Amino acid sequence: MLVLTRKPGQIIRVGENITIEVISVNGEHVKIGISAPRDITILREEIYEIVQGQNKESVLNDSNSFTLAEIKLDELLKKSSQQNNQNK
Amino acid sequence: MICKTAIGELELGNDDIFIFPHGIPGFENLTKWAIRDSGETGLNWLLSLERAEIAFVIWQVQDYIEDYNVQGFSLTDQHKVYSILTMRNQGDNLKVTANLLAPVIIDTQAKRGIQYVMTDTEYSARTPLYTREEK
């Protein structure tokens, strides 16, 4: 890992079109500004880990649960559409 | 073509198959997926064509939550937005949650997909939809 020391207002350039600026430092909190092309995903690591974990938990690995899921979700959707209609 | 999937062998056409260039979080190396309507329920299957045992139930969320806002992503008519559902059996109870934080977005023209993780949002990866208690 490349480790650089920067002061607030100083910038790091990554490749052609990504810049990372240290905006301010306040105790434990470092405020960082990132400029990157729209197709570059920028995420807090812990959010990515939440989605990773959620996906792993969402895999349906038991063939019985497919049928079960369909039956139960059919009921769910009927119920939720009824509620929506009532709310309107 | 006939493809082996978690719900059996399926005859799939080009319209059913989507490339996710970066996979999805947790399954970053799985890039080839099929989407199949599961019948009258409005639910769909997201089926890996590379690891046939991997499948998700996905839900076309905007049909049910009209003001669902995919913040930071420019949606057009050619996109479809799905939410991955999580089903947990707790004893006899089935608990269903939807991942509204990270919708699966399909580009129906380019035949590409992404699981888009929103950055600044109130949406949860475990939005409760349903808990059923059986006796």
Gyration radius of chain A, in Å: 23 Å
Instruction: Quote the beta fraction of chain A.
Output: 15-25%
Question: Which geometry of chain B do the CA atoms define?
Answer: globular
- Biggest sheet overview of chain A: 3 strands, antiparallel
> How many extended strands of chain A?
3
The H-and-E topology of chain B, N to C, reads as EEEEEEEEEEE
Q: Largest inter-chain interface?
A: A-B, 34 and 38 residues
Mean pLDDT of chain B: 87
The helix content of chain A is 40-55%
Q: How much of the polypeptide of chain B forms β-strand, as a percent range? A: 35-45%
Shape of chain A: elongated
Largest sheet of chain B: 9 strands, antiparallel
The N- and C-terminal alpha carbons of chain B lie at a distance of 44 Å
**Fraction of helical residues of chain B:** under 10%
Give the number of helices of chain B: 0
Strand neighbour order, sheet with most strands of chain A: 1-2-3
Helix/strand/pairing class of chain B, anyone?
mainly beta
Uncertain parts of chain B = none
